[in-house]
Amino acid sequence: MKGVIFDGERPRVVDDLEVRDPGPGEVLVGIRAAGLCHSDLSVVDGTIPFPVPVVLGHEGAGVVEAVGAGVGHVAPGDHVALSTLANCGACAECDRGRPTMCRKAIGMPGRPFRRGGAELFNFASNSAFAERTVVKAVQAVKIAEDIPPTSAALLGCGVLTGVGAVLNRARVDRGDSVVVIGTGGIGLNVLQGARIAGASAIVAVDANPAKEAVARQFGATHFIDASAADTDSVKAVKEILPTGADHAFECVGSTRLIRQAIDLLDRHGQAVLLGVPPAGAEASFVVSSMYLDKSILGCRYGSSRPQRDIALYARLYREGRLLLDELVTTVYPVEDFAKAADDAHHGRVARAVLTFA
Ligand SMILES: NC(=O)c1ccc[n+]([C@@H]2O[C@H](COP(=O)([O-])OP(=O)(O)OC[C@H]3O[C@@H](n4cnc5c(N)ncnc54)[C@H](O)[C@@H]3O)[C@@H](O)[C@H]2O)c1
Ligand SMILES: [Zn+2]
Ligand SMILES: [Zn+2]
Q: Which of 26, 127, 171, 245 is the most exposed place for a label (fewest CB within 10 A)?
């Protein structure tokens, strides 16, 4: 079968991948569509260190083809969106409703794929850039059949991460002010999360002025073009929010922008870190600025509870309150992965989405 692998040198599309049958508590899913998140590109450029060879992709939707022993919540033929959380369901973190903190769900990649006799790792317990993948049952969330797979695919990372950061981690309240730095697939979902939460001023900042229209479509009330040589983003935000922002989300993965997010906080404000800079990167801030009850919050995967949250987001989509179709700028057959990656890298798309025959 076809898939996109990374061998440590470059990503390549191959057609001789194999995936093993689902074991007890696992599900085999035929992938229909998968979004290209920046984190996939970060594996390729080394920003996110990951063992190789690996089958990329972690934001997908498809149809259940087979289930292992003990799986009862989905059956062959069901449409599902996939999460990246292979959480155990039995530890204290899972028990208290924090599956993103489950230690069994971090840093233990499996090797369900084979190619020419060699085993390949799965990425983010998911590997949605393959015609078929095997995930833990908890990762397969049943969705209605009438959600187009190209849209449903984006639930599994962009929406869970971005909307979840607003609703679950920051807990943005009605009337709050929000700044979103970086309006890619993650930032756009932070914007629409802020709109859904009832934020008043929602300021988007991006170095690509072409993002303004889509940022406003997703909920931005203001847009700051950070590419202009004379733009001081902190000053520009403070012209709109003179006392600063209640919430500032960094959605790029730059230590300079993390500092910016902290510098534009109002009293009691919180900076939420979603972007992933290179492993080992350090950021700094003026310590005395923090005493005014400010916080810096890390956020993994929108602090999500996927079985609950994906069902909620599907409902909001049906009500027209959560945009999914509008995130899908361009659809590419998996063979055109290189073009999709180039378009994503150059900011020509909100999300590039791959499809599988
Ligand atoms: N915390 C998590 O769980 C989690 C989950 C998914 C993705 N991520 C991370 O989130 C980040 C964003 O992912 P994405 O898929 O949205 O990426 P993307 O490539 O789609 O979007 C990045 C956006 O940032 C903008 N940008 C780049 N440089 C900028 C600058 N100097 N100032 C302002 N804007 C700038 C780009 O124009 C683009 O619009 C990545 O670092 C990714 O690894 C984190
Ligand atoms: Zn992602
Ligand atoms: Zn657990």
A: 171
> To 5 degrees, how large is the angle CA 333–CA 146–CA 315?
115
Task: Kindly list the protein residues whose Cβ atom lies closer than 6 A to any atom of ligand 1.
Answer: 37-39, 42, 157, 161, 181-187, 205-208, 211, 226, 251-254, 257, 274-276, 299-301, 344, 347
Q: What is the CATH number of the domain that holds 252?
A: 3.40.50.720
* Parent domain of 349: 3-147+324-355
17 and 118 in a single domain? The answer is yes
Ligand 1 atom closest to Cα of 253? Answer: 41
- For 24-80, the pLDDT digits (tens) are 999 999 999 999 999 999 999 999 999 999 999 999 999 999 999 999 999 999 999
Domain with residue 63: its CATH number is 3.90.180.10
Q: Is residue 253 part of a domain?
A: yes
Task: Identify which ligand lies nearest to the alpha carbon of 86.
Answer: 3
